[in-house]
Amino acid sequence: MITGRPKSPLVLSEEERLQLNAVAKSRSFPHALVMRARLVLLAAEGVANTVIAKQLNLSQQSVCLWRQRFLKQGLQGLHDEFRPGRPRSISDERVAALVRKTLATKPKDGTHWTIRSMAKQTRLSAPTVYRIWQTFGLQPHRQRHFKLSPDPFFVEKVRDIVGLYLNPPDKAMVLCVDEKSQIQALDRTQPVLPIGLGYVEGVTHDYVRHGTTTLFAALDIATGRVLTACKRRHRHQEYLAFLQQVEENVPRKLDIHLVVDNYATHKHPRVKRWLAAHPRYHVHYTPTYASWLNQVEIWFNIITQRAIRRGTFKSVKDLVAKIDGYVQQYNSHTTPFVWTATADSILQKLERLCQRISETQH
């Protein structure tokens, strides 16, 4: 009986077996290296090359190759060999100079470098500048907006509100309340051209203003449902009317925790008197310039993107009707937002930002 060429025995030391097992179970190493580690482990158990090839979806030649590489070079042999290519045409000094120029200077005729302006300045090709920027994560054309809160009770307010989100009180409802003011009923001056095969929806660049409305909203963090009302103006009178609407829609047995910002309307004397007359209400103010702590802002962004920004409205009444229609549809299949940030993680992130700002002052 012909059995083929006898295979060299593959025996692993205890250290090699531990290292191969670690590689074989890794989720961060390259997939090819993980497969080769599994291959060697199976071979050390005496599994035939044909069985290994079938189990790992490899060719039998590949199994033989990596088995031999391991026998000759050990663990190092499982890594891909260096493949020399065309020598680099740009020295490390030129790359470093480009990076320093990007970080430390600005063009004389603009606010930031572009790929073409930097290529012209450094006498490199535009694709080369692009690759270097991409490698070092440089994006001169982009900005991140931030605003540090000067609120003297910033830490306490963050812990208070995040605590409500992560550990809501029993027998109570947490409502994130705010207003989106000056929503314009905009009507295009000519008919909208519908989307078609090969071209996008077409709208005129100009529009006719038919008036504005203010959208009051209260988001229940437990269910994700939203209670809304559109008002003509944005005063304490309208806010009080909306609070009365909340009062009528929340069961009497529940306390109500309101998360609101520091807008003057929310602190008007008449509003304070109303809240004092309704002791089940507990108000939690977000820190100054920290509206991102209010979950209803997430919902405002959703309705803006999906129902308002690209809408065409013949009148304020039409705008209000479409907002109400969207809210009804949204509440029919809503889910709550998942808040995962702890107070400590938020404060650590702000500490890193302050550190960066401090470093730029030197």
Lay out the secondary structure.
Blueprint: H1 14-24, H2 31-44, H3 49-56, H4 60-73, H5 92-104, H6 115-122, H7 126-136, H8 154-166, E1 172-188, E2 207-220, E3 226-231, H9 236-249, E4 255-260, H10 269-276, E5 281-285, H11 296-308, H12 316-331, H13 343-360
Parallel strand pairs: 1-4, 4-5
Antiparallel strand pairs: 1-2, 2-3
Helix pairs in contact: 1-2, 2-3, 2-4, 3-4, 6-7, 8-13
Task: Explain the overall architecture.
- Helix content is 44%, strand content 13%.
- It has helices at 14-24, 31-44, 49-56, 60-73, 92-104, 115-122, 126-136, 154-166, 236-249, 269-276, 296-308, 316-331, 343-360; strands at residues 172-188, 207-220, 226-231, 255-260, 281-285.
- Helix 10 (269-276) links the parallel strand 4 and strand 5.
- The protein is extended.
Sum this structure up briefly.
The chain has helices spanning 14-24, 31-44, 49-56, 60-73, 92-104, 115-122, 126-136, 154-166, 236-249, 269-276, 296-308, 316-331, 343-360, and strands spanning 172-188, 207-220, 226-231, 255-260, 281-285. By secondary structure, it is α/β, with parallel strands linked by helices.
